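Figure 3 (text version): structure tokens given as input.
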């Protein structure tokens, strides 16, 4: 009997290792188990992102402002500076997979939303809703600090901060956390500093 080729013996192990790594990175980017909705409200500055077609016109000064509505949904106002001035779009977010509990405030469990920027008259169609998961909050967040927002396929990524810029120590913490969660740092674009 001939001995099996070394690659043939190693292939099942390599497949198992690759599968476990891909599974680990997918699990690592899961939404947070809970999110204090009231604390998350307010203005966040975009400090980095995976470039995407719907923000191609944005040069800098990108913000997302969240406001809790009476019906429990969240108004989302995105704004950025463009070559021609300012671009603003307003949409609405609602819980995706979880529920909003009343625990002396509003707690979303898990931190999964779906967001639509379609006109209000078209939102009932059930199309045009994007997945929005808060997958990481830095210490001190959401009142201060930074947040990582993505969605299950990891095709979209935003790093948001309560301040317009992060210092070098904070940025190093962001990139270390993104790498730990399995995000592709080569795709990451840091937002240009806001112009005065």
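Below: residues designed for each position.
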């Amino acid at each position: 009997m001939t001995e099996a080729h070394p690659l043939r013996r190693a292939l099942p192990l390599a497949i198992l290792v690759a599968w476990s790594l891909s599974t680990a990175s997918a699990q690592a980017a899961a939404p947070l188990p809970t999110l204090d909705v009231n604390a998350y409200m307010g203005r966040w500055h975009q400090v980095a992102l995976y470039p995407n077609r719907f923000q191609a016109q944005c040069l800098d000064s990108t913000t997302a402002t969240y406001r809790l509505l009476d019906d429990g949904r969240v108004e989302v106002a995105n704004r950025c500076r463009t070559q021609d001035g300012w671009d603003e779009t307003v949409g609405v977010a609602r819980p995706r997979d979880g529920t909003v509990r009343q625990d002396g405030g509003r707690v979303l469990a898990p931190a999964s939303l779906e967001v639509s920027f379609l006109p209000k008259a078209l939102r009932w169609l059930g199309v045009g809703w994007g997945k929005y998961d808060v997958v990481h909050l830095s210490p001190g967040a959401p009142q201060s600090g930074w947040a990582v927002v993505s969605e299950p396929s990891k095709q979209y990524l935003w790093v948001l901060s309560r301040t317009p810029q992060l210092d070098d120590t904070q940025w190093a913490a962001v990139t270390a956390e993104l790498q730990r969660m399995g995000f592709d740092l080569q795709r990451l674009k840091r937002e240009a500093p806001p112009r005065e």
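The domain at 6-190 is CATH 2.40.128.20 (Lipocalin).
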